[in-house]
Amino acid sequence: MQKILSVAIPCYNSRDYMRHAIESVLPGKDRVEIIVVDDGSVDDTAAIGGEYAKRYPNIVKVVRKENGGHGDAVMAGLKAATGTYFRVLDSDDWFDREALLKLLDVLERMCKVGPKADLVITNYVYEKPAEAKQKQINYRKTLPEGRIFGWDEVGKFATGSYILMHAATYRTQLVRDCNMTLPKHTFYVDHLYVCHPMTRVETIYYLDADLYRYFIGREDQSVNEKVMLSRMDQQLRVNRLMLYDLDLNAIENETQRKYMYYYAEIVTLATVSFFLRAGTKDDEYEMESFLSEIKQQKPQFYEWITAAPFFRHPIRPVVRWPKWISYPLFRLTYLLVRRLFCFN
């Protein structure tokens, strides 16, 4: 019997928290396939994965590989997947049990009766237990619920509610057919993982359930502000790959094309935000150089991100207003947004 859902769990030295991630998927029983990808760990990660594979041989399997980074581990998980649908669960995050069972019921119905949606979207929740904070991201005002629909029925996405990796369950074959390759030893490739298949998505299903619990709080976490500031070269690399490797203008559906433009804009906004947050003259110069590069190489996209109104295109003030006004204001806005969305 073919699995309904394959869940890849990329792990690198994850012994302290990977059990929680694996245990959160086990309620799916024989309908799920858990792929623990040991990305060259030097701790007990492989042994823990092997322990679960021995206890649940029909559910859990372990893929061992040399260290290549998160994206390379995702690609290894995708290669090993046998389920009709595929999604990623980071080793320090977890699934909500009831939401997982609801998702599996929806996927099972699609597999048995049809048709199969290309993309199934669920909610996710930022979990910041150290501060007893949660922030739910849902799509109730944007997407029809409980049925398959196309891009023409998709509404306007609110700021902060874009379809990130945590929300996306893709049809496995669609992800493979897009010929995506995620770069090795590079953080923040989850944006590329979402966007490459998204350009081929035609049918969507939205399940209003809080499936993915996104843990915020580890000091070494990739979304920790200090860590991100130290990895700006990788953020830039991912940003450039999004802009130059994806031919967004070739997308025929206007709503889909606009969404992809907004997504690329959000990633660019993150790049600009962290350069300005770093605060040095060198960082400001590199940010300005990057925007000039976009203006020269992607003029249509540059016009998009600097268009009016500024509350839909927040980069506009950075290039249209004087530095002494726009840069400090942008830094203050960033701090407010970070607090609102529980970023670390």
Descriptive notes:
The structure is a single chain. Helices cover 44% and strands 17% of the residues. It is built from 13 helices and ten strands. Strands 1, 2, 3, 4, 5, 6, 7, 8, 9 and 10 form a ten-stranded mixed sheet that branches.
- Overall morphology: globular
State the total count of DSSP E strands. 10
Calculate the terminal CA-CA distance, rounded to whole Å: 42 Å
Low-confidence stretches: none
Over all CA atoms, what is the radius of gyration? 20 Å
CATH class of the largest domain: Alpha Beta
Amount of beta strand? 15-25%
How many domain modules? 2
Helices, by number, come to 13
CATH topology of the largest domain: Spore Coat Polysaccharide Biosynthesis Protein SpsA, Chain A
CATH architecture of the largest domain: Alpha-Beta Complex
Order of helices and strands: EHEHEHEEHEEEEHHEHHHHHHH
Average residue-wise pLDDT: 92
| Structural class by secondary-structure content | alpha/beta
Most strands sheet = 10 strands, mixed
- Percent of residues in helices comes to 40-55%
Looking at CATH, the homologous superfamily of the largest domain is Spore Coat Polysaccharide Biosynthesis Protein SpsA, Chain A
